[in-house]
TrEMBL record:
<keyword id="KW-0063">Aspartyl esterase</keyword>
<comment type="function">
    <text>Acts in the modification of cell walls via demethylesterification of cell wall pectin.</text>
</comment>
<comment type="similarity">
    <text>Belongs to the pectinesterase family.</text>
</comment>
<protein>
    <recommendedName>
        <fullName>pectinesterase</fullName>
        <ecNumber>3.1.1.11</ecNumber>
    </recommendedName>
</protein>
<comment type="pathway">
    <text>Glycan metabolism; pectin degradation; 2-dehydro-3-deoxy-D-gluconate from pectin: step 1/5.</text>
</comment>
<dbReference type="GO" id="GO:0042545">
    <property type="term" value="P:cell wall modification"/>
</dbReference>
<feature type="domain" description="Pectinesterase catalytic">
    <location>
        <begin position="36"/>
        <end position="331"/>
    </location>
</feature>
<dbReference type="Pfam" id="PF01095">
    <property type="entry name" value="Pectinesterase"/>
</dbReference>
<feature type="signal peptide">
    <location>
        <begin position="1"/>
        <end position="28"/>
    </location>
</feature>
<keyword id="KW-0378">Hydrolase</keyword>
<dbReference type="InterPro" id="IPR011050">
    <property type="entry name" value="Pectin_lyase_fold/virulence"/>
</dbReference>
<dbReference type="InterPro" id="IPR000070">
    <property type="entry name" value="Pectinesterase_cat"/>
</dbReference>
<dbReference type="GO" id="GO:0030599">
    <property type="term" value="F:pectinesterase activity"/>
</dbReference>
<keyword id="KW-0732">Signal</keyword>
<dbReference type="GO" id="GO:0045490">
    <property type="term" value="P:pectin catabolic process"/>
</dbReference>
<dbReference type="InterPro" id="IPR012334">
    <property type="entry name" value="Pectin_lyas_fold"/>
</dbReference>
<keyword id="KW-0325">Glycoprotein</keyword>
């Protein structure tokens, strides 16, 4: 009888464990049609990531996984607009890294003529995605150009995100100036690390950064001369969708940082329950291209913590949102998700 009770107890525990795990097991219900493996050491289908991307047919409508084994991949990778439904999967952002060192350069005349000696900012990205319906997990995207010498920094993108319905999970974006071009579309970043010093998250997109860690890498000598800016949002018109929303997570690092500056007069950035270290300057925000016309700039902080969250000396034009206004930004279904996230693998 005692043995029977023991067996029954074990079965009950196993059933409970399975029931508790069932939501996690059933959440990945969207299948992938095939997996392509990339291994820099030659143990996969390809040695380069771009070669795997090129194999995906134009007009693709079924999810294809590109599994990138641990290692460093020195290449520029582009997901063109014609190759949607791509899942890029690494083995951890500390193990799988795509890196390159392009940077914006050239004279004004050279840039106008598009000569061989010129490179525009968007062309410097180590990783670019223009396709809709893209997911990346556990990968680091790095631009190494400004890593050592910060005496003459210039734009050097780690990633450019230019499609719609895009999600990054547990990825890292490493750079200094213009690290992440969050350009256009609806994007979701979950538990990502984003490192930089100057405008290191910028663009026009409508994005939620959920539980992400923002790391200022401004050296102390640079910080004595001036501060950096975490964000530079570029919303142009009142009716344009767009805004960067940071939910949870933290802002830390070295040097001094403004929370953001207004690239255009309708720039929109909200920090919600973010833990802020003392890297944040007391003023919090800068008007930049909005100049003296900051009435339409929507910069706000809600329920943030840490020594950098003290709002006593913030700029007077920072917005104070009602509960209904806050919900429009922090509620996933209100701001970015009409069901597309549940359709990703």
């Amino acid at each position: 009888m005692e043995c029977h009770r023991t067996v029954s107890s074990v079965v009950l525990v196993l059933v409970l464990v399975l029931l508790l795990r069932w939501p996690a097991l059933s959440s990945a219900s969207v299948p992938v049609s095939r997996t392509i493996t990339v291994d820099s050491k030659g143990g996969g289908d390809f040695r380069s990531i771009q070669s795997a991307v090129n194999l995906i047919p134009d007009g693709n409508r079924q999810w294809v996984r590109i599994h990138v084994r641990a290692g460093g991949y020195r290449e520029k990778v582009t997901i063109p607009k014609t190759k949607g439904y791509t899942l890029l999967e690494g083995e951890g952002h500390s193990s799988t890294e795509i890196y390159f060192d392009d940077h914006a350069h050239g004279s004004t005349d050279g840039l106008m003529r598009r000569g061989a000696d010129a490179m525009l900012t968007h062309e410097t990205a180590t990783f670019s995605v223009y396709a809709d319906d893209f997911v990346a997990r556990d990968v680091a995207f790095t631009n190494t150009h400004n890593r050592v010498n910060k005496s003459h920094v210039t734009q050097a993108l780690a990633a450019l995100v230019g499609g719609d319905r895009i999600a990054f999970h547990r990825c890292a974006f490493n750079g200094f100036e213009d690290t992440l071009c969050d350009n256009t579309g609806r994007h979701y970043f979950r538990e990502c690390f984003i490192k930089g010093g100057v405008d290191f998250i910028f663009g026009y997109a409508r994005s939620i950064y959920d539980g992400c860690t923002l790391v200022s890498t401004i050296p102390s000598w640079y910080g004595r001369r001036r501060a950096g800016w975490v964000t530079a949002h570029a919303r142009r018109h009142a009716g344009d969708p767009g805004g960067f929303v940071f939910k949870g997570g933290e802002l830390r690092g070295t040097g001094r940082q403004y929370l953001g500056r207004a690239w255009n007069k309708y720039a929109t950035v909200v920090y919600y329950h973010v833990n802020m270290s003392s890297v944040v300057v007391p003023q919090g925000w800068a008007p930049w291209y909005a100049g003296n016309n900051t009435n339409d700039v929507l910069f706000a902080e809600v329920g943030c913590t840490g020594p950098g969250s003290d709002m006593a000396r913030r700029v007077p034009w920072e917005k104070h949102l009602s509960k209904a206004e806050v919900k429009k930004f922090v509620d996933m279904s209100c701001f970015i998700d009409d069901g597309w996230l549940s359709k990703q693998p």
